[in-house]
Amino acid sequence: MLVFVINQNKKPLMPCKPSKARKLLQAGKAKVVRNTPFTIKLLFGSSGYTQPVIAGMDTGSKVVGCAAIANGKVLYQSEIYLRENVSKKMEQRKMYRRTRRGRNTRYRPARFDNRGNSRREGRLAPSIRSKLEAHFREKMFVESLLPVTGWKVELASFDIHKITNSEVSGVGYQEGDLKGFYNVKAYVLDRDGYTCQHCRGKSKDSRLHCHHIVFRSNHGSDAPENLITLCETCHKALHNGEFKLSGSKSKQTCN
């Protein structure tokens, strides 16, 4: 365990041992400025000597990992869990706004064409911007504790098409499973032979639905592997809890 130290000008210095920090506090040469992580501020002038400190960050969409080392010793490490409720809160705000503006109150000028922010070049969606700003906040926080001399950031770049088909190359990237179909729904219906995958057409219901195996509310995707064709009769029965889907592949079995 180490105690972080900043000088009189709030510039970070090298951390010290708890015993050293305790002596400085007892002698009145330092004061506590933060409890978590425990940080003290020197009340006297110091030489300002520091060592090279390298910080690293593992970026992510849900969890961010961060650490800092000096002379092969870990000085700081943390995990930051990013917000996942931004979109839902915006939907809630939208609902309250519509309710408020729909009331029979005094005249309000039209506000449908004043969204300049949404047309700004380089604009990021609020949920993405929230995650990006969380990365920068952690970076600034680490730099406020330690005299960081350099950063190493792990940027994950995945070729999803290559993962599913290791032999893909060139124009093959443009010739995926959805080639020739209007959208994902059209592909799923064709893949399943325009037949309900539960009753196999026994219900004689011609109205078909593309059902999400893992619900969108549970972070299920719109990928074909998460969609299955069900007739409207079976679709309603499924949501009423009369049967359950088993498995997670595109071809499902129903209990």
TrEMBL record:
Protein name (Swiss-Prot/TrEMBL): HNH nuclease domain-containing protein
Record-annotated HNH nuclease domain positions: 183-236
Domain of life: Archaea
Region (Disordered): 92-123
NCBIfam families in the cross-refs: guided_IscB
InterPro entries attached to this UniProt entry: HNH, HNH_nuc, RNA-guided_IscB-like, RRXRR_dom
Basic and acidic residues bias locations: 110-123
Entry's Gene Ontology molecular function annotations: endonuclease activity; nucleic acid binding; zinc ion binding
Composition bias, Basic residues: 95-109
Database matches in Pfam families: HNH, RRXRR
Classification via SMART domains: HNHc
